[in-house]
């Protein structure tokens, strides 16, 4: 689901933060500033109105793009914090289910 082989960030794409205070937390890309920085929000600590500007090298791009968030951003240019929380919790629940089966998203066993 990532945009081609380049791994470029897309709006609605889920990321795992790997640097800073919020290490190992998930967030969703709600904006791309340039090739180096993205805007992240999680709907809880980081709301849509005050996104976190984060260096792309400080996050892991995951192969999951939330269709709800992507469609909302394309249609209205905004997304509710509830949709952000829902998309993250949906992904985390799927990840836990896969982990219990023995698969890991991050390639670890």
UniProtKB/TrEMBL annotation:
Keywords: Ribonucleoprotein, Ribosomal protein. GO terms for cellular component: ribonucleoprotein complex; ribosome. SUPFAM superfamilies: Translation proteins SH3-like domain (SSF50104). It comes from the Bacteria. The keyword Ribosomal protein applies. InterPro entries: Rib_uL2_dom2, Ribosomal_eL14_KOW, Translation_prot_SH3-like_sf. This is RNA-binding protein. It comes from Filobacillus milosensis.
